[in-house]
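Exercise 7. Predict the joint structure of the components listed below.
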Amino acid sequence: MSENNPFPDEGNTGHIWDDNLRELANPPPNWWMMAWYASVAFVIGYTVIYPAIPMFDSYNKAEVVEGGVITGGITKGMTGWTAIKEFEADWAEVEAVRKPYEDKIAAMSAKDILADADLSTYVEHSGKVLFGDNCAACHGTGGAGNVGYPVLADDDWLYGGTIEQIQATITSGKKGMMTAHAATLSADEIDTLANYVVGLSEGKSDEKGKALFQSKACFACHGMDAKGMAALGSANLTDGIWRFDEADKLASAKRTITHGVNHPGDAQTRMAEMPSFKDKLSEADIKKMAVYVYKFGGGK
Amino acid sequence: MAEQKNQYEALQDLYDEAHEHTINVGDVKIHAKRMGGRFRNLKWLANLTWIVFFIGPYLRLGDRQAVLFDIPNRQFHIFNITLLPQDLWMLSFVLLFFAILLAVVTALAGRVWCGYFCFQTVWTDAFTWIEDKLEGTPAKRRKLEKSPWNMAKTMVRAKKYSLWILISLLTGVSFIAWFTDAYDLWVDLFTMNASSTAYTTLALFIPGTFFLAGILREQTCFWLCPYARIQAVMVDDTSIVPSYDVSRGEKRGRLVKGKPASDDQGDCVDCNQCVAVCPTGVDIRGGQQEGCIMCGLCIDACDAVMEKINKPKGLIKYASWDGIMGKKELPILKRPRVWVYTAILLASIIGVVVGLSGMESLELKVLHARQPLFVVQSDGTIQNRYTLKVLNKQHKDMKVKISVNDEAYKGLIMLGAEKEIVAAHGTVTAVTVFVKVPRKNLTEKSQDITFTIKAKDEQGTEYKSDRVSMFIGPNR
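Solution:
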């Protein structure tokens, strides 16, 4: 075939049909072949060193990784490297930096943590994620509050604003309680009391309202001076801060008096419940949150 | 007739070798001929500026390196000035300055950077100088390239490569020495105690320098370098660049032994010397082109030939296209580009100068808390939260007193700044303060509030810095 090749010197394979139709041999350039061999060598090296070929179903099973050791997979890699191990090593580095602080926090009371400049700065920075995950959905980032959820950055506290009281509130949760007065008070009386309460928050006094406040035993929960009681979680009625919607203060006060707070069976009653974090967060984390909340600026 | 003969004899050698020097189209290695001359000397002088790169790191100032870009500690020391990350904005002015300097020089005199100062040009020049010394003239070098490997070739190549590697090593070490203590670096490098970054940088620099300056050479300028292309478009008809005087040189033609030149023959005797000496292998007679780095070596070569044949020098010379074409040249100061460039240059210098002179050793930044913007307290006061960041650039910790312009606000109370705070040196110390103002004393939803920090050092020098922020209250 090659001895009567009509197209010598062009590097054809010698397969020639129909006079001039022929198969040429154009090998890839050298550099391309070298790169290709290098790629093959890389794949082989990679397969030997790293876990590369999983079993058909092993990669989506959680239990294939136990303590960083791959239990599934055809090739596990010579070095024993796994992404989980690398993650754990990195995580351990972070933990090592945090450990001295975390150890102290676990051993100290929230009050001592607050007093320790170093630790409280640590909490201020590391508490952000914890607060964001657990608290901010209701209380807003930075404790800014939301309609129906108390502001944490102010100095008005339903259940007390000392560091211990804040810690207790987070630990056990709180549920507000006020009876609905729709059945026990007339519309007129509710009107008078609502006006009295709005007046109180603006620093005005009203004898008729005050008399009613006394005679209907509102003071039993809100106190003789109407400043509320931390033990009961009753609101301070004399300050400018409103627990519930304050766009229309009079309507808001009327609704609260009429339907109460968490009054069973009343569809329009106010909802006010803070869940307990005892089971969700560790004691150290609760201490951190207490310090974090305290440092919003309202702690007492 | 006799003159004609002498001229030819003077050129005979050059004609004999002319065929060796081909225009660079990327197929063969360019071996440029080296010869002396005015621009060759200039090139050596320009090369010398790079000495600063090698010896700069060894300068000391007190107990530290005079110029040190200390990245791990985020501090740049430039003689007496210490720059922290907060001063980095000045770098943009410095970069702007050099970018525009490149533009203005290129607009006026072409690719001066490429031809004289660029590390690619300078290192290639040094590498080929070594090659020339060891392997001889371009003709010999080409012959050696084609010859089979034998003892002699191995020896000469080994010498050349080891010198190249030595320069590459010095280049790498010198580069690293700007970023870490130079003296410690040498010790650490040899005791294997240097950082992995240092070894990685060396591992990149040694083969990088060797390959770029030794092997790739002018191909870097042709096919790798983006600046080459950018600079090429900055040249215009008024830029003074190495140019071939077409009207004088054409019609070019070789002198022929025993024959007088024809009447229409120009001054170019077509000896190919301009191509022979060109480090990038272009033919300047074809006009300005992308491969020309404007180093002026062809001017030297052509002048030497013109001298031999008793013709005036300057067939190839620094001239503008307008000049070559006999047009009137626009004076420098009447070119708008010159003014625009100068204005930007001045602005960037002023930026750096203002930045450096305004550098305080104590600096205050105030961040107003955004969530919540303000808090209504039970007594009706409005509370704002601020994070004060005190940057202390001194070498000692300072006790800092924070104050606020409370005279502008009736009943203002600041919490959290009762005591002096300690601002650690060389870093930022953050302090959270709360400011309370009775609601009735606020006149606007947002008002200015000025924080001031004051400190005194042991010598009794007072430092002060203030910063305006805002105090935000509810809608009125």
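Discussion. Residues 83-107 of chain A form the longest helix (25 residues).
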